[in-house]
Design brief:
Layout lengths: L2 H19 L3 H20 L9 H12 L4 H6 L4 H10 L6 H23 L3 H10 L2 H7 L1 H18 L3 H14 L9 H6 L4 H16 L1 H12 L3 H8 L7 H16 L8 H19 L5 H10 L2 H10 L10 H28 L14
Organism: Virgibacillus profundi
Keywords: Membrane, Transmembrane, Transmembrane helix
Pfam families: EpsG
Length: about 375
């Protein structure tokens, strides 16, 4: 069994004992701490051969470490915000392995705090994070993963309708990865109230994107990337709608059934539903280029909030359950979600994930 499979099994065992058998506030905290340590060890102590882009991160780190003058800093091609962060990090260490460890601690400690405070189900949020490949992405697109987690935190200020704090948090995310700018409209999108007309319009837009994804995708790629031709050739997709888009569509229909945002004025539900609609629109573009799947991660990550929230408000849905029935239905739903995610993830890691396997620690 490979290291990713072992990571999954350890997660499931810890979940079973600390969230299932013992189940207390203390064990919830202990669970988050232990999973954070587990993630940090695997991600932060890896060798530079683990993760396709790790060597590229090492190159950037060494470049900043060897700056001799302000001109070197100003003329570097590294993203400005990340350049500043690397310059700050080199004050504390000149060792790339130590840098990876610190970065992993920052990433997964922040994620653990966010999930503990704001998720309606710690277990579901973590299994979604693993099963949908976000943990594996952290080995490859480390900067974007941290940026995505920071964006996840900004949801707090969407719900409290504090635009200034939302803007500050997203700008911090942009420091680590400029693509986080794509989430800026989310504050206003989340506020949008639904009507039958808007649903029809969105359905038409989704259909048009599916039909003309190649033309739209090429146009957006040329607008965003200077080396668009190279990016298109490197990340061109197979042209099918993709399983992830189907997953989002099914989730949206389930969300409509449980708590229809047209009929019910539940702002948190509506905000999450709206964010997932945008996730679908972006994901449909991935049939043209994988680049859009990467951009969509900033929206898709909110499934970590949305699915636990839907189970949490299940008692407010059209089907009324008695207390014991509700407990059983939630357990069955969690089991099915977990099983599907495990099967999906096991299939994912068969193809070497994002260059993680074979895994080696930095001292090997």
């Amino acid at each position: 069994m490979n290291i990713l499979g072992i990571n999954l099994i350890l997660f499931l065992l810890l979940s079973f004992f600390l969230l299932g058998i013992i189940k207390s506030k203390v064990t919830k905290k202990l669970f988050v701490i232990l999973i954070t340590i587990q993630f940090v060890i695997l991600n932060g102590l890896r060798s530079y051969n683990v993760g396709v882009d790790t060597i590229r991160y090492e190159k950037s780190f060494l470049e900043v470490l060897n700056f001799n003058a302000i001109e070197d800093f100003l003329t570097s091609e590294i993203d400005f915000g990340y350049r500043v962060f690397l310059e700050f990090m080199t004050i504390f260490t000149d060792d790339f392995n130590m840098y990876l460890l610190i970065f992993a601690i920052l990433t997964f400690a922040l994620f653990g705090i966010i999930i503990y405070k704001y998720s309606k189900s710690i277990f579901l949020s973590y299994i979604l994070f693993i099963g949908l490949g976000f943990f594996d992405h952290s080995f490859n697109i480390a900067r974007q993963t941290l940026s995505i987690i920071i964006v996840l935190y900004s949801f707090k200020f969407i719900i409290s309708r504090n635009f200034l704090k939302f803007l500050i948090v997203v700008c911090i995310a942009i420091v680590f990865h400029t693509a986080a700018f794509i989430f800026l409209p989310a504050y206003f999108i989340a506020q949008m109230k639904w009507s039958k007309t808007k649903i029809i319009i969105i359905t038409i837009i989704c259909t048009l994107i599916s039909i003309f994804s190649k033309q739209i995708g090429k146009l957006l790629t040329f607008i965003y990337y200077d080396d668009a031709e190279a990016m298109i050739n490197q990340y061109e997709s197979a042209g099918s709608i993709g399983g992830l888009a189907v997953f989002i569509i099914v989730l949206l229909f389930i969300g409509l059934f449980i708590r229809n945002p047209i009929k019910h004025d539940d702002f948190q539900n509506r905000a999450l539903f709206n964010i997932m609609v945008i996730s679908l629109l972006i994901q449909l573009m991935s049939s043209f280029s994988y680049l859009f799947s990467r951009l969509n991660l900033f929206y898709l990550v909110f499934v970590i909030y949305y699915i636990p929230y839907l189970l949490y408000i299940l008692d407010k849905g059209p089907i009324k359950f008695k207390t014991k029935e509700l407990i059983v239905v939630r357990l069955i739903a969690k089991f099915i979600i977990t099983l599907v995610l495990i099967l999906y993830y096991l299939n994912l890691i068969k193809i070497n994930g994002p260059g993680i396997l074979p895994y080696t620690f930095f001292w090997e």
